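The data are set out underneath:

___
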Amino acid sequence: MDLNKVDLNLLIYLDALLREQNVTRAAQQIGISQPAMSNGLRRLRTLFDDPILIRTSEGMTPTERAIELQPKIRDVLANIEQFVQPQNDFDPSSGTRMYRVMASDYVECTLLPLLTDYLRDYAPGITLDVLTPSDVGFRDVEQGKVDMVINRFEDMPLSFHQSTVWKDSFSCVLGRQNPLAENLTWEQYTSAEHVWCSKTGMGIGMGVNPDKVQKLGWVDDAVDRAGGKRNIRVFTRHYQAAMLLCEQQHLVATVPTRYANLYRENKNLVVLPAPFDIPTFELKIAWSPLLQHNPAHRWMRHLIQKIAADVPE
């Protein structure tokens, strides 16, 4: 194929179509008319000899060929953006920018206080808009509407850039008046009442089924492998709520160690090692390829990694 005869704008159309999976929204996304986008889709079908998008009962669905093309097209466009991006470095001391960051309250309590302390002293023009995992979907990140997401993720689109912020283990938190606070054994752990706390990934969560251990996460997977099962009395997505419940009732919360460390000086709580082996997990930061080469975005990513290294394990 003669590349000179290929309209490279079609790659932009294809990227928008695969992100939106809707001709009208794709046209709005890049600022052209709906008929122009429909014509672009017809030309793309001819160019790739493939339907690209097929109308189904669930809407416009990408073909296998389109799914294969999507990360490649995204990489091509990201490289072009890098070529035309002004190479001026971002100056955080004088720059002004709002970063929209999706983070669980585990991250909000362990990492963000240190980040905001740094920004106050060295980047006073920077503002954070912190969103919860339920506020954000994969498409928001892919389109660059959210700068970055920081959480534990089981699945992540291949087109996203990501890196590990840190690895963390698990510890148990109990009220100081809990009879188990003196010596928490495996037998006591499995006979105790527990508060479950987790919010991984992103998007609106569904109710928890306590009988489906594989859906309950790292801790319950480990308990199951050790031959036991937790007696979970309360399910919550908020770590601070779990701590409050442990203070008021004889409940055990098994939470990431960096979070548990925040309560080691709390006179009403006790932090103990888990009485069985729980594999460590990785806290990840992920972002859209659209923002990969943006100087201000790159500065913030590096800053988060630097600050994360100072959070005690």
Q: What stands out?
A: The chain has a mean pLDDT of 87. The chain has twelve helices and twelve strands. The radius of gyration is 24 Å. The chain has three domains: 3-84, 97-166+282-308, 170-279.
